[in-house]
Amino acid sequence: MPDKLDVKQGTLALMILKTLESLGALHGYGIARRIEETSGHRLSLNYGTLYPALLKLEQEGAIVAEWRQSENNRRAKFYSLTAAGRKQLARETRDWHETAELIAAFLTPRRGREA
Amino acid sequence: MAVVGWIRVALARVAGFFSGSRRDDDLQEELRAHVEMATAENIRRGMDADAARRAAMLESGGVTQAAEAVRDRRGLPWLDGIVADVKYAARSLRHSRAFTSVVIITLALGIGANTAIFSVVRAVLLKPLPHRDGDRLVYLRQSMDGPGGENLNFSVPEVTDFRGGVKSLGGIAEYSTWTITMRGDREAERVNVGLVTGNYFEVMGLSPILGRVTRPSDDGPGVPAVMVLTHEFWMKRFGGDTSIVGKQIKTETGSATVIGVLQPAPTFPTRMDALMNMVVSKHHLSAQMVQGRTHRMTEVVARLASGSSLEQARTEVNAVYARMQGDHKDSYDPNSHYRVAVIPFKVALGERARLTLWLLMAAAAFVLIISAANVVNLTLMRGVRREQELVVRAALGAGVLRLRRLMVVENLLLTLTGAALGVVFAVGGVRLLTSLAQRYSTRSNEIRLDFAVLGFALALSTGVALLLSFVASLPKEGTFGSWIAAGARRTTGGVRRQRLQRGLVVAQIAVSVVLLAGAGLLTRTMVQLSEVNTGLKTEQVLAIPAQLLSLGDGDFSRVMQGDAAAKEGYDRISREIRALPGVVAVGVGSTIPLRGGNVGFEVKAEGRVLAVGEAVPRAEVRTADPEYFHAAGIPLLRGRSFAATDRRGAGSVVVINQALADKLFRGQDPVGKRVAWTGDVLRFTPFSGDWRTIVGVVGNTRDGGLDAEYPPAMYMPFAQELAIGGGIVVRADSNIAALTAAATRIVRAIAPTVPLGQVMTIAEIKSQALSPRRLNAALVSSFGMLAVIIAAVGIAGVLAFSVSARTNEIGVRMSLGADSGRVQRMILGEGGVLLVSGLVLGVVGAFFGAGVMRGLLFGVAPHDPATFAGVALLMSLIGVVACWIPALRAARIDPAIAMRA
């Protein structure tokens, strides 16, 4: 198995929210799969990481959970975004872009300075 | 996160904590679904079922860890942990039942004793007074040298001088203790009242809970008599009847209107049932009382003026007093050292209780120290046995913090259980202590186990628990590895721990010795006091206090009119009691032996001039009928007793006691000499200052208290003077107590309206006088014995532990030729060192500490060598026995078994 990255603290919540926004209600396994696929299998999510994060979002009121039948007739807990969750997603997306730009600006060597 | 968000999470967590198990099932199912989906996916990719499942599990991580992570996130993990710790601790304590019960009982005794005594100390000495700004109240006390001189009270002119001259006292209130006889539907009863000035309640800062209190318009003559009931009396006598206000109370001189009920508050210097205005006593309004500088009947309480300090008040009072003494030289004999003290009222209220209570508090604290030390020792030993358990827990991932928390929880469980049991003990103890405190302070009815006291118990037990949790050594974070490696076979717990254990044992013994020494001194005091020669030939004398002559409103001319009737009543009572079977003698006098009368005046002897610097001699005023001395068992030393011929109109004669004879006529025969009452104060009394011829000398009696000097006394013939006081003494040839009922019946029949004091024998009076001391000595002694037992258990425990830890070594020694005697001596030696160190420390400590007890001792020096030797001997004996038990066990060790262990 190739070396996989651990999910960075704080980014997982954003990934979960984004996944739920694009795919609608989804169970934990589906969320994990989707995040791994989107990352091109560079990320690995074990459920010791995933489920506490889901619980935290649930406690914060960003997502709600509900038991339902899955596509292949299994009982599974489905998570979906709440209005508050959508707002949080929008805010965190914006924050993240800003942070990313900032970091990028920092890390990209400026042409003028290059010797 | 916003505050709202934070609260939401917190609420969710609390909910999660309480719905834990349901949520757990939920989570398990969710995780199972997860694994199944992953497995299905893997099978779809072509794995066989087993491999698919294994891969799925591997990918997902451990179920347990995940569940743990979610659980930490979901509920309140620390609380979850504590609940688990409590369960665990309870289980582990249940398993070591002996340890647990010893610790709990030890702590319960320690905490119980402290809680009970603290509740008394708080109520009597510490709690703020219920009076408004009670810390601004001061009590003024005038005293002088000599018997009866500790508290002279003040006269009205003296108070007037203070009121005019001391600016730092904002208000000065006067009051006198007085008794009235309440007549009503029931038997006549004596009521202790305070006659107060109208500003009394204002100065005291007290308010009524019903009706009103007295005010300046209630002062002076010609106003109706009014009465304010104290809260205690109102509850006790009138059952808290709220319709009492406005009712009339019949007294011997008329009636008084109840105008109010006072808030609960202590009275001083004695317990009072009601407070009345001065009009109740004509005497208090008479010119003699108002103008006589030496007519001292008034207690004085004052309130510091705002902005003035106690020091200022003291300085000013002393300045005014010095001026007073200069202006009225006749009223203040310079050789008797008249002085005035300004004492905070709260201090005055606790004055007599202070030393005793702090002593008991210290003794109880010592017991707690010893029991805590014992528990620490037990915990240390148990800690060693538990080390392996802790090592295993550490190996399984418990951090130092986690282990420490477990210990705190476990120790809290122990100490709180101990405290709960201790509070139960305290409830019983408080009752006993209240009866002790009653003898010392009028604040004793404020004693209760309230929240402050329970908080005290809680603080004590928490303190002990923390102490216990932090003496056990845990490694520093990060050094667990070496601890785990070493932990497997360490059983004696290292040098540091051993030193601590030994130190604790030495401290226990030392503290026990100090306590025992205190107990010994108090017990000897008690014995000395009970062996004090009372001066009486026998104590099998029945004493009946019955005052037939009513002092009424204090108007002497009217009192005189009742005198003949009273004397006739006494005659009839004496005659009838004398007719009872077995009665040998019946006497009537002003006082009852060992009770004393407490009224004394200055005396002079004919032809005797005071030496330079000699205080004017004083003597107690007493009367006696011809049979009094014989009946009371007071020995006649010289001359004769009174005779029937010493009646009114005959020559004035007196009998004096030996103490007065020594004072006035050292080395001479006083019989035939003449003496007289003297001093300005005579003007206010029914006694003349004429010369009286001494006809006899009687022995001294301990009437001022068993630990006091013999008070000088002068007896006048009962028939020649006013029938004051009223003590009937009865002597019989057999069991005197059996006569109590019959004699009481006779008095009741002849004087039905007279309130009767408690009828008891002189022996009972003596025993009653001793009872607070006895209780005191018994309490400190039981603390001492308790301490010794705990210390003995402590030393035996530590040695036993050392023996069991050294079993292997002892086995080796024995197989190399040491016989059992040698092993025994080795262990005894180990204990002996501890014992001797403790003894030496304890004796030194007691030697320095005993000085503070001086005021409580009688007939024994604080450094009494016999007591100290006895205490050291007792402690050594118990200590040696305690050492012997483990030593014997060591000697019985079988080397073959020991070495294999």
Structure commentary:
The complex is a heterodimer of chains A (about 120) and B (about 900). With about 120 residues, chain A is α+β, with helices and mostly antiparallel strands. Chain A has helices at about 10-25, 30-40, 45-60, 85-105, and strands at about 25, 65-70, 75-80. Chain A is about 55% helix and about 15% strand. Chain A has a three-stranded antiparallel sheet. In chain A, strand 2 (about 65-70) and strand 3 form a beta hairpin. Chain B is built from 26 helices and 21 strands. In chain B, the strands form three sheets. Chain B has a six-stranded mixed β-barrel with strand order 2-3-8-5-7-6. A six-stranded mixed barrel of chain B has the order 13-14-19-16-18-17. Chain B has a four-stranded antiparallel sheet with strand order 12-20-11-21. The longest helix of chain B has about 50 residues, at about 345-395. At the A-B interface, helix 2, helix 3 and strand 3 of A face helix 1, helix 2 and helix 4 of B.
Question: Layout of SSEs?
Answer:
The complex is a heterodimer of chains A (115) and B (901).
Chain A: H1 11-23, E1 26-27, H2 28-38, H3 47-60, E2 63-69, E3 75-81, H4 83-107
Chain B: H1 3-18, H2 20-44, H3 49-60, H4 63-74, H5 77-95, H6 97-126, E1 137-143, H7 156-165, E2 169-183, E3 189-196, H8 200-204, E4 208-211, E5 226-229, H9 231-238, E6 248-251, E7 254-262, E8 274-277, H10 282-285, H11 287-291, E9 299-304, H12 310-327, E10 339-344, H13 345-395, H14 400-438, H15 451-471, H16 480-487, H17 494-530, E11 541-545, H18 556-578, E12 583-589, E13 600-605, E14 618-624, H19 628-632, E15 636-639, E16 653-657, H20 658-664, E17 674-678, E18 692-698, E19 713-717, E20 727-732, H21 740-750, E21 760-761, H22 762-805, H23 807-815, H24 820-849, H25 865-891, H26 895-900
Helix pairs in contact in B: 2-3, 2-4, 5-14, 6-13, 6-14, 6-15, 7-12, 13-15, 13-16, 13-17, 13-22, 14-15, 17-22, 17-24, 17-25, 18-21, 22-24, 22-25, 24-25
